[in-house]
Task: inverse folding
């Protein structure tokens, strides 16, 4: 997707001035390295997504995350900015991401064996931007290399 005609938002715990260029965080959520179970779950989730990422897609490990839902942006911090992606952006349905998180939680928290094929299928559907199954309503996330704060 190029040159958005829609309005995007970014939620943050940090305050930035108008015009600020948001770039990927080297130590953000997707880079969890600490030793607790939540971080282990995130590492598994992000590693299966990265392993299945088509080469032409923007890596979650090097992305700025934006949304077209202002209320959803509030989940990520008290500061919500209207932003404009710089260059290409891509969309994925978060329902598939949640399925991967649940899949990894069963392994990390529940001690169940990891059925990697199940995680691979969810990851492929995330990258394909497949919609959530009928009856499920979910938010979409957008990834870009950078986004400028416009308001």
Result:
């Amino acid at each position: 997707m190029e040159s958005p005609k829609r309005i995007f938002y970014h939620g943050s715990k940090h305050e930035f001035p108008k015009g600020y260029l948001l770039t990927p965080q080297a130590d953000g959520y997707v880079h969890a390295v600490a030793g607790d179970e939540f971080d282990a779950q995130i590492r598994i989730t992000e590693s299966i997504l990265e392993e299945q990422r088509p080469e032409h897609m923007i890596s979650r490990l090097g992305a700025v995350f934006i949304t077209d839902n202002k209320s959803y942006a509030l989940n990520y911090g008290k500061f919500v900015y209207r932003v404009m992606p710089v260059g290409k952006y891509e969309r994925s349905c978060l329902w598939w991401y949640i399925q991967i998180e649940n899949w990894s939680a069963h392994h990390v928290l529940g001690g169940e064996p990891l059925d990697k094929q199940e995680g691979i299928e969810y990851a492929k559907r995330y990258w394909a931007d497949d919609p959530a199954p009928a009856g499920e309503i979910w938010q979409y996330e957008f990834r870009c290399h950078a986004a400028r704060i416009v308001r």
